[in-house]
Amino acid sequence: MRILFYKIAILFFAITFVSCIEDLVDENVGGVFTPTITGSVFYIESTESLINSSGSNPVLIQSANFDGFNAEVFAGRVLSGSLTYELTNTTSKQLDILLELLDNGGAVLDTEIFSLNPNTNTPLTRETFYGPPSVNDINIIKNLSEIRLTVVNNSDFTSVSNATEPKFIFKSKGEFKLQLIQ
């Protein structure tokens, strides 16, 4: 009896799955799909002790190669999207952050500037849109090859926050609408 139940359950789920796919195809005229994909783009964190030990500005310059966006499989299909940045500063430092989006020749395509107050537990979040209907050209994303983050300490190099593990955290994610043809 139990085996019969499992067979019926599997058949039910298979039929439900196939019917959902058929509905999806019927709803999209001409077999054009525009899914939205989301993923992590760039993450970095630095402890306050590392910031203090740097002794000079900028305290951090970090670059990451990001050729995934300008690969034809993505660049040829991306319609619009956004980059969301989340920054947290639990250190005792006033920090200024410059984020640069660069093409493969090192030219700056776009910049974001952030100023973070010290000892802030609430993350600063900013979302920047690219492609229609925003004013930022989608070609910025299509030509993106490198992300560079520069952090400047506008405080001293000796103070220490009262936080348990004081650090600076930068996270970002991308969410993009792609055009796929069946």
Short description:
This protein is of the alpha+beta class. Helices cover 23% and strands 45% of the residues.
List the defining traits of the structure above.
single chain, 182 residues, alpha+beta, 4-stranded antiparallel sheet, 23% helix, elongated, disordered N terminus
Question: Could you describe the 3D structure shown?
Answer:
By secondary structure, the chain is α+β, with helices and mostly antiparallel strands. The strands form three sheets. The protein has a four-stranded antiparallel β-sheet with strand order 2-9-4-7. The chain has a four-stranded antiparallel β-sheet with strand order 3-8-5-6, with no helix packed on it. Strand 5 and strand 6 form a beta hairpin. The protein is elongated and about 60 Å long. The N terminus is likely disordered.
Largest sheet, if any? 4 strands, antiparallel
Q: Roughly what fraction of the amino acids lie in strands?
A: over 45%
Helix-residue proportion: 10-25%
Separation of the first and last Cα atoms: 42 Å
Order of helices and strands: HEEHEHEEEEHEEE
The beta-strand count equals 10
* Sheet with most strands: strand arrangement: 2-9-4-7
Shape: elongated
Average residue pLDDT: 84
Radius of gyration: 23 Å
- Unreliable parts: 1-26
Q: By helix and strand content, what is the structural category?
A: alpha+beta
Number of helices: 4
